[in-house]
Design goal:
Largest sheet: 14 strands, mixed
Order of helices and strands: EHEEEEEEEEHEEEEEEE
CATH topology: outer membrane lipoprotein receptor (LolB), chain A
Shape: globular
CATH class: Mainly Beta
Radius of gyration: 20 Å
CATH superfamily: Lipoprotein localisation LolA/LolB/LppX
Number of domains: 1
Strand content: over 45%
CATH architecture: Clam
Helix content: under 10%
Distance between the termini: 33 Å
Oligomer: single chain
């Protein structure tokens, strides 16, 4: 879980999703094993003078050992104002083409100048106030100039490809594909493992408008920005929702005046 960046988390458990939306009861006896998965989304750097509003569509395809696939989806609203403040909604991932309805589980508001991050729960009407360090996310805004390259070391190979340019949602982007092959024994694998990351980066906005990650351990994750507008978003988005209680979780919170 990233607690110092805005792209913090979408917590996924297929069982948990079913519990939220269907009359299903878990076994009363505690059980061994299980998985709690965290899906990182696109990084939105807090740069000023580049406002936008958009919808972010997520699709996560996971493959089973017998060749079947499980597809989870959601869509959520994201925005950044001219001051570099960031607004993100977080919604539960749900099975694609099912009657299970997604629900918003977090609202996140980051301010790079105040170095504050509010994690707000619509269910509890509370916001945890955290320290926000924008340094890591700012690296995502750096312009890219991809070149063909290949590197080899004891762990495996990394190849980078320049995919050229592409217009997405009315914005020009630059495409990059990075293919990583890990040698047997690198992480307990008995055969080579190949993972691919492809992204289409807007130099103007400093974000990826399309990002695709695939590999044997994660399946295929696709993040697509749609309904993009460069107008200044509603500034009310960057205020703590009315009626929410704030819990200051910062280690060195300001002394009350």
């Amino acid at each position: 879980m990233r607690t110092k960046g805005v792209g913090i988390f979408v917590l996924i458990s297929v069982v948990a999703i079913a519990q939220e939306n269907q009359p299903w009861s878990p076994s009363p006896r505690a059980q061994d094993g299980g998985v709690r998965e965290v899906l990182e989304s696109i990084v939105i750097p807090p740069i000023p003078n580049a406002p936008f509003s958009a919808t972010l569509d997520t699709e996560w395809v996971k493959y089973t050992a017998d060749g079947a696939s499980i597809t989870l989806v959601n869509e959520r609203h994201i925005a950044r104002d001219g001051r570099g403040r960031i607004y993100e909604e977080r919604w539960w991932l749900v099975p694609k083409n099912s009657n299970v309805k997604s629900e918003m589980n977090w609202i996140q508001i980051a301010d790079p100048k105040q170095r504050t991050l509010y994690n707000c729960s619509p269910q509890k009407h509370t916001c945890d106030l955290l320290l926000y360090d924008p340094a890591g996310d700012l690296t995502a805004a750096a312009p890219i100039n991809p070149t063909q390259s290949a590197r080899t070391n004891a762990r495996g190979d990394v190849a980078t490809e320049n995919l050229g340019t592409r217009n997405i949602a009315g914005v020009d982007t630059v495409g990059v594909r990075v293919t990583t092959t890990m040698n047997p024994g690198t992480m307990g694998n008995d055969q080579p493992l190949t993972a691919i990351r492809e992204y289409w980066h807007s130099q103007e906005l400093g974000i990826n408008l399309l990002s695709i990650r695939s590999g044997p351990m994660i399946g295929k994750q696709t993040f697509t920005v749609t309904e993009l507008t460069s107008a200044e978003p509603d500034l009310q988005l960057f205020e703590v929702p009315a009626g929410y209680r704030v819990n200051d979780q910062r280690k060195n919170s300001p002394v009350s005046q």
